[in-house]
Design a protein that fits this description.
- This protein folds into two domains: about 90 residues, 3-Layer(aba) Sandwich (Rossmann fold), CATH 3.40.50.10330; about 140 residues, Sandwich (Tumour Suppressor Smad4).
- It contains five helices and 15 strands.
- Strands 5, 6, 7, 8, 9, 10, 11, 12, 13, 14 and 15 form an eleven-stranded antiparallel beta sheet that branches. The chain has a four-stranded parallel beta sheet with strand order 2-1-3-4, with helices on both faces.
């Protein structure tokens, strides 16, 4: 009989490490083979920590198809459904197949510079800004239709799953993860006699392309945040974003976990 490998991915906090030890013991008792790190032959990845730990795990392992579930030892833990005190109940439910699968679609960016095209994926959001916290001017197109010349701190494009993160703290709407859309959210837009920018977020169908075209002065003075990680590009001209067919899979153990999460985390 083949080994039933379970990946254990944890951050370095004391609480996470103690939780990982308890989890490993419980897995061994049930005949699983716990693996600290990422094994491509595993049937499940269990991420211990907060949402930051989960995002880091997803990026570091190239958004694997192996499903994941999160144990929350962080502050918010919107992706982390399980609490440390209910590890045994969670494992029993897993063995009995009492869960559903939720696909988390990624946002994809094609990044056009003078000589090359780069690709980036994000679980939560991407943000285009000027470097050194300067005001930025960006022409915004939706499927080649010019929408506005934005002026402000930057533009944030979030997935439905990421709508409760940076987007929400910047005044954007919460979007249910079942919807196939992106949200375009202006960060501190400038509205004056010289500049006119939309002051609220826009929900864009996921199959449409959002094009952000920087003014030339920002071609080498830009900052693209990808799930919080900073990226700089030389001779940057345009960033095209759309909801990708690429996804990661999360196991869900409660039908009401999304609404309970909203209430517990934000109210």
């Amino acid at each position: 009989m083949a080994d039933r490998i379970i990946n254990i991915l944890t951050n370095a906090s004391y609480e996470s490490k103690k939780t990982a030890e308890r989890l490993s013991s419980s897995l061994l008792e049930r005949g699983f083979k716990p693996f600290y790190g990422f094994d491509g032959d595993a049937e499940l990845s269990i991420c211990i920590g907060g949402d930051g730990s989960f995002l880091k795990t997803a990026h570091n392992n190239n958004f694997p198809r192996i499903p994941f579930v999160g144990i929350n030892t962080g502050h918010l833990g919107f992706y982390q459904e399980i609490i440390p005190g209910k590890i045994d109940e969670f494992l029993d439910s897993y063995m009995e197949g009492k869960y559903s699968r939720s696909q988390i679609k990624l946002v994809k960016a094609d990044i056009y510079t003078k000589n090359k095209v780069f690709k980036q994926y994000a679980v939560n959001e991407m943000v285009l800004k000027a470097s050194h916290s300067k005001l930025v001017h960006i022409n915004v197109f939706i499927d080649s239709n010019h929408l506005e010349k934005f002026s402000g701190d930057g533009l944030l494009i979030s997935t439905p799953s990421g709508s409760t993160a940076y987007n929400f703290s910047s005044g954007g709407a919460i979007v249910h993860p079942s919807l196939h859309v992106l949200q375009l959210n202006p960060i501190s837009p400038v509205n004056s006699s010289a500049y006119r920018s939309l002051g609220s977020s826009i929900i864009v169908p996921g199959g449409h392309t959002i094009s952000l075209v920087l003014e030339k002065r920002y071609a080498s003075a830009n900052l693209l945040l990808v799930d919080g990680a900073e990226n700089f590009y030389t001779n940057l001209h345009r960033v095209n974003l759309r909801l990708s067919n690429k996804y990661i899979t999360k196991l869900v153990f409660s039908e009401n976990s999304y609404w309970n999460n909203l209430k517990d985390k934000f109210l």
